[in-house]
């Protein structure tokens, strides 16, 4: 950017900008700055216009052109080369930004700041305490374009960006705050972004690394959308020699109605931990820590009321665990490297679970694609658990419906589905047909037994026949 503008002009602009901040408390209108740099033919005119504005004693109501404002953190003394601590400077830019003119309100109690921007200007800033907004009740703010790095004494329980507030009286603290194009380096001290009790927060194209707790923690509120982002405790491209030691959680959702879309979690003990309802995951690629090393890709710890959709995700050597799942969709996803899905019994409840249309690939170790963890007791209340139409290569496919056939000359035919059906000793529905292979007679036959997921058909007289059976564990 600097190369494209005349040095003298830049210098004047920088001086003017500083003057503006110090003496007037208002930054240059965003549009004026942008045009100054990007459109050479407009430079002088806009520059003159901005000087005119500088000269006016009190800026009037914001014009159509200056609805948004940009706060450049270097104008507040932040060090874009990361040599000195920039905490106070960035907090003071934040503080000014949220004082900006309000354009009415968003949700009741939240002032609409019109899209004000805090611009990190492509710098790397070292910060020694969380960037917490000085007050709550503000929205329509963008923080973008640079790197934040925790200092060596950053508090271990802190987050680089902290959208929380001690103000217990408000129903929501923040709304429509967007974090875009940021690299957050927690320096193995604390986490990346904390969002508490807020609405419609966007985390977009961020790279969050070196967290010791959580990359992103969402508590309460609703609709934090994490999009097109990359999270990893250690920066690795896979097969890391330290993988067994990965800890922490990529995204920790303790609130409802959030979405994680097109996100990669490349290192952490748990990729996404979910302890609340109605969250949705799509296009998520987890290779955080292999299940064989004790890692979990997505952990749904919402027993009895899960309400989660996992769609079009890529579980790469790390799987999905769901405790007492009630209303969960896992569809159109790809499980690589013997990754599998676990239904973990807490109180033995599994209802409304769909694991369908997924692909599983393994290395012929006989690992089941879907498994039950009954270490706390068996599943006792099972209703509408549908595990079907999954394609498995090199793994043992577990399903809740199956078909099979057997041929024999005698009075008894048995088709054993126990290595295929997911739920033990549970056949709710059977359909069979008996084809007489030899005489064309009409022998009497009947379904005699379905115990232990094995279907037995018997006939009154000896007959050479093929028996075809379809079973379903759903009523
Ligand atoms: C706390 O909430 C009250 C009521 O909404 C508000 O007036 C006050 O400014 C808030 N304080 C902070 C620190 O956000
Ligand atoms: C993992 O951690 C253990 C115990 O802290 C340590 O001894 C070991 O060297 C670590 N392994 C790697 C590969 O970092
Ligand atoms: C079936 O077994 C009976 C004897 O049990 C035998 O008489 C008959 O030929 C056999 N049929 C076929 C097709 O093998
Ligand atoms: C059904 O099969 C089981 C063994 O799988 C057996 O214990 C049971 O007695 C059989 N029931 C009947 C009615 O034959």
Brief sketch in words of this structure:
The chain is mainly beta and 475 residues long.
Structure overview:
By secondary structure, the chain is mainly beta. The chain folds into 3 domains: 7-62, no CATH class; 66-393, 3 Solenoid (Pectate Lyase C-like), CATH 2.160.20.10; 401-472. Helices cover 11% and strands 46% of the residues. It is built from 4 helices and 33 strands. Helix 2 (30-38) packs antiparallel against helix 3. The chain is elongated, with a radius of gyration of 30 Å. Mean pLDDT is 88; it is low at 1-68. The site of one 2-acetamido-2-deoxy-beta-D-glucopyranose (NAG) has 8 residues, from loops.
SSE layout and pairing:
Elements: H1 7-24, H2 30-38, H3 43-55, E1 70-72, E2 81-85, H4 87-97, E3 111-119, E4 124-127, E5 131-132, E6 138-150, E7 159-163, E8 174-185, E9 191-196, E10 199-204, E11 207-209, E12 214-232, E13 249-256, E14 259-267, E15 270-274, E16 279-282, E17 285-286, E18 296-300, E19 308-311, E20 314-316, E21 320-323, E22 326-331, E23 334-336, E24 341-344, E25 349-356, E26 359-361, E27 370-373, E28 381-388, E29 391-393, E30 401-416, E31 429-436, E32 445-449, E33 454-472
Parallel strand pairs: 1-3, 2-4, 3-6, 4-6, 5-7, 6-8, 7-9, 8-10, 8-11, 9-12, 10-12, 11-12, 12-13, 12-14, 13-15, 14-16, 14-17, 15-18, 16-19, 17-20, 18-21, 19-22, 20-23, 21-24, 22-25, 23-26, 24-27, 25-28, 26-29
Antiparallel strand pairs: 30-33, 31-33, 32-33
Helix pairs in contact: 2-3
The structure holds 2-acetamido-2-deoxy-beta-D-glucopyranose (NAG) (4 copies).
One 2-acetamido-2-deoxy-beta-D-glucopyranose binds next to loops.
